[in-house]
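Problem: given the chain below (344 residues), write out its structure.
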Amino acid sequence: MEGGETRKIQFTGRSSYIVSLPKQWVMELGLKKGDQLRMVRRGSSVLEIYPPRNESHIQKKEDAIIEIDEKETTSIVRKLISLYFLGFKTINVKPKNGRLSAQQRNVVKEAVKRMLMGSEIISDSSDGITVQVLVNVLELTVDGAFKRMIHLAKSMFSDAILAVRENNPELAQEVINADDEVDRFGFYIIRQLKIAIQNEHMQKEMGFRNARDCLGYRLIVKNIERTGDHAAFIAKDLLEFRKSVKKGVLQRLQEMNDFCLSALDDSTLALFKEDYNQAEETITRINEIGRYEKRVADASKLLKADEVYRVRRMTENIRRISEYASDISEIVLNMNVEKTLKKT
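Solution.
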């Protein structure tokens, strides 16, 4: 169908013209007799046909079964995530021989709780566990999930710096725990992107122009996941040293953190606005990060060796935000360069 088909117009009754639909298209979307199709006229010569706007007509994956060896534990999580990404609605975890151990069952339940957004365990016994993905692909949009993911990652950095300022291990632990939530949103978005790539109709419903944009979002999601990871590293640093950083140095770190988060804001705003020029300006602005690093280094000159090492680690974790912001801006340039050329 990619190259197009030719079909004859037929006349029926007294005033109706009909054209048959391609069987493969009907089968892939799960359409049946009596379903309502939406038709949109584009100009004087184009007529677009869309299936009903509900998930029951989206091609669905069959149930998946994972068979687990007696000694498997961490590999179960990798298999669960892979099948979740592939769009399966139901995942059955079963033992190859005997029964699932208590440890294996706990690994599955913890993975579903911490990583697989919209999933619930609907059956749990030593003979097997059934995981069902309940979320509708149109209930939480990719943009909606992505915005919440960015907000979480930024909040993690702000809270991590605050935890160091206050020498607050409880807040640091909350930052570490929040990293799992960032990953959950990331996994959910990747699942939706895979569905969109496999179904052109779903691409349009999710707001993507083409499959290449889906790839761009996939790369951006990875950058946001890494942003959360580096916030967690700062929180873990506090739990390791159990003391704050000198006020003058911390002030410089805070300024650097604010600058990097601002750059991240600009890069993601350029993404949502599809703004080529703003993405380019953000990349140029990020080059100023060196000034902030120098200020931190100057404020650290009188510190002891172990304190200098600690500050350098924090500086590196904060600087990574600017690198990810730059990467996101580069992706935005690639996604929107054709549109910019057409305007020119």
